[in-house]
Amino acid sequence: MTARWLLPWVAGLACLVACLTATTAAAWNLAKHEPESGLLFGMWYDRLSGVTPSDIEDKLQSHHISMWQSDINITDTLQDASPFLRDVEKINTDAAIFLTVYPFEGIDAVSDGAIADLAKLLGRLTAQKLTAASGASATRRVFLRYASEMNGNWFKYGMQPTKFVEHYRRVVTAVRAAAPEVAHIWGPNSPNGYPWIGGKYAPEPGSPDFQLLDTNHNGKLDIDDDPFTPYYPGDEYVDWVGISAYHYGKQFPWVDNVVANTTELEGLMTGTGSPMVNPYNFYRMFSGDGVGGQPKSLTSGGKPFMLTETAAAYHLNFLSDGTPPFAGPGNVAVKQSWWQQYLNPDFLARYPKFKAVCSFEFKKAEELTMRDFSLTLDPAVAAAFVQDAEKMKTIHWAQPVTREASVLPDVLVASKSSAPRHSGTAERGWVAAVALTLAPMLLSAVC
Ligand SMILES: *[C@@H]1O[C@H](CO)[C@@H](O)[C@H](O)[C@H]1NC(C)=O
Ligand SMILES: *[C@@H]1O[C@H](CO)[C@@H](O)[C@H](O)[C@H]1NC(C)=O
């Protein structure tokens, strides 16, 4: 038996060495699914309302969204994700799957079996092969945002840094064992209003979590405390970072239809601008040089940044009596004032690690008004968005593909039970064999 299988490896290795010496170190610091440059444009669509990705793409003149987000809950069982996955499979593009998972009943309610089911589901998804018209094939890219907005006090798992960090690490470790290609997004809320005094799940004064969150040790939780660092699980558990950032109007109680100030988004990312904003510079702390955490930075920075959910709200009517608020400059102008902040080459040049946006495609009753956040419900907004997006040559739109058989039949079985899974030795053997064959080709392709 000859060692013929070694040949591509030798070639690949030689090529890798050449590559390493020829390119800058930065090119090798890309995180999972991070484009070297340019922007992924995703959407979080309102799945439970019955709308589908294909409905939305029809309204965007058939531009293919780079990634689709939806959410499921995890408790002692994992909620069935297949309605979402089926929706994305139906459009036959190579769009990434962006799964947000909420431990809605709190961290203690999440079972090991449910975490194992999540890991297994993601393993299946990331193994699905997609083939483009050119014949090139790749596996499905998957992002996981687990327990997002953990610095807010509106989720049962919120504002519990000790438990959160331990739990998040456990989930990442379990998922990596079964699905090493998943990109893990750590996604706190923007600091607008932190620490949201008086919320339902705020920590008891004097408790260990309270002391951790009182980062300047002045005995109270206030706007001068670091809204991020106490919740950071550590660089080795995080592939991407991101925040939720919205334009709601002028000021609390957020009912005014007004355009966003031109630096409003930048203010949320960097802790500058409006007095509502906390002075911590999220972008610099996690995606820049890592400086600025209190009491000390837990990151060396350089993580790709994503607006994990973002939109400008257009207030349609008051919930109390149905009357419309002042129309202001109109839906198009309000929304455009927001997307033009990130669909903006100067802005992106200032923030080179800003690599993805996920637009919140919902109409939703919140606080005092019915809010239209979407880019496609109003055809005039959709037309204006497409026009501006087409000017941005750096958006990585998804491409049409054909795919292997659906991953869903197995997924459905997996999600129905939280019993411990079999060890999957056979699967791992198969994956190893494929990896052994493909890795050298990939190496050569990269070079
Ligand atoms: C998750 O649970 C919450 C609370 O029960 C519910 O409001 C929400 O709709 C659930 N999410 C999904 C995707 O079903
Ligand atoms: C924009 O900035 C001006 C001046 O700081 C302020 O008066 C106005 O309320 C801001 N508008 C919004 C929408 O935040």
Automatic annotation (TrEMBL):
The active site is at E149, E309. Keywords: Glycosidase, Hydrolase, Signal. GO terms for molecular function: mannan endo-1,4-beta-mannosidase activity. PROSITE patterns: GH26, PROKAR_LIPOPROTEIN. One of its GO terms (biological process) is substituted mannan metabolic process. It comes from the Eukaryota. Residues 22-360 form the GH26 domain. Residues 1-27 form the signal peptide. Belongs to the glycosyl hydrolase 26 family. This is GH26 domain-containing protein. It comes from Caulochytrium protostelioides.
